[in-house]
Amino acid sequence: MTRWVLHVDLDQFLAAVEVLRHPELAGLAVVVGGDGDPTKRGVVSTASYEARALGVGSGTPLRTAAKRIPDAVFLPVDRPHYEAASATVMAALHEVTDEVEELGWDEAFLGIDDPPDDDPEAVARDVQRRVLAASGLHCSVGIGRNRLQAKIATDYGKPAGVFRLTAATWFDLLGDLPPSALWGIGGKTSTKLAELGIATVRDLAGADVEALSARFGPTTGPWLQRIGAGRDSAAVRESPRERRSLGREVTYQQDLHDWDDVRAQVVELATRVAGEVAESGRDAVRVVLKVRFVPFTTRTSSRVLPEPTTSATAIEQAALEAFARFEPRAVRLVGVRAELSR
DNA sequence: TCTGGGGTCCTAGGACCC
DNA sequence: TCTGGGGTCCTAGGACCC
């Protein structure tokens, strides 16, 4: 039996969906983010390839994007519309196999056993045709023997391509790259690894697991070495998985200077979250309050609920108890998150 | 550059108990 | 009067991802 994992990633998803319904935007620098007003606080969710070529990508502050590309088309994030497009795509993927693990709106892993002629590329191209036919959207497909290989392969297939990455080519392709080239390693971990003399993926694969464990802990240490070597579980976890938490947060356009205003926002968010907890049919077991002070210092405070509950009163009270631990200061963001019972 | 909103998982320290 | 080892829970925060 031969086992393959395919990683399907829609190309410039939000921008592509917008171009589909506004064909006149094709070929333009399209920037989707916030409420579409680039003078407000917010960041870019997705930029079209044309915008990326001009220095604007996901995470770029909208105000920066507007300075870099004054004549870009700025559009608001339209969640319901993207969710519908995503559902169409995921349905197309489920026609290929039941083994589908969704990763947000625009990505999924597919588990494929024994493809015809042991030709996973043919399956990948079939996936691309089906997605395009169903949704009008192009995607790239990475092929690997596990999720990690497939996920990284996709980048080499973009846009609209197919790319295979296995143990045979892992070090040829990635060996000399910094560890941050790997899925799960960001800038912070990369810096810590450099302090241990680990500068490349090859170094990481050959690193001493004991040393990694001493620095990163008993779970993360060995995991880092494994992903350096390109090893990962081939299991595709069926989605949707049981959600662990549910929250709402808001960055205010103007900083809140009045502590009573902040308190009122805590209550409002807690009420909203409580409503959604009740709707979810699950119980909350803990409430986490998040406050981002001016200029950008973030603090959290949490309370275990006396018992698992959907009670808005209990959730609000826990949020306020957490709130009472903070000293009054100017605030730019308030968030409330409920952790759900297992 | 002046930094969203939705999440997940892991670590570490202190409290507390046996 | 100076002190163990293990286990679990709670809390805060870090890091990462889409």
Automatic annotation (TrEMBL):
One of its GO terms (molecular function) is DNA-directed DNA polymerase activity. It comes from the Bacteria. Mg(2+) binds at D9, D106. It is an enzyme of class 2 (transferase). Keywords: Cytoplasm, DNA damage, DNA repair, DNA replication, DNA-binding, DNA-directed DNA polymerase, Magnesium, Metal-binding, Mutator protein, Nucleotidyltransferase, Transferase. It is found in: Cytoplasm. Its EC number is 2.7.7.7. The active site is at E107. Residues 5-186 form the UmuC domain. The keyword Magnesium applies. Binds 2 magnesium ions per subunit. Its cofactor is Mg(2+). It catalyses: DNA(n) + a 2'-deoxyribonucleoside 5'-triphosphate = DNA(n+1) + diphosphate. The record marks L14 as: Substrate discrimination. InterPro entries: DNA/RNA_pol_sf (IPR043502), DNA_pol_Y-fam_lit_finger_sf (IPR036775), DNA_pol_Y-fam_little_finger (IPR017961), DNA_polymerase-Y (IPR050116), DNApol_IV (IPR022880), Rev_trsase/Diguanyl_cyclase (IPR043128), UmuC (IPR001126). Its main location: cytoplasm. Monomer. NCBIfam families: PRK03352.1. Belongs to the DNA polymerase type-Y family. This is DNA polymerase IV. It comes from Angustibacter luteus. The lineage of its organism: Bacteria, Bacillati, Actinomycetota, Actinomycetes, Kineosporiales. The gene is dinB.
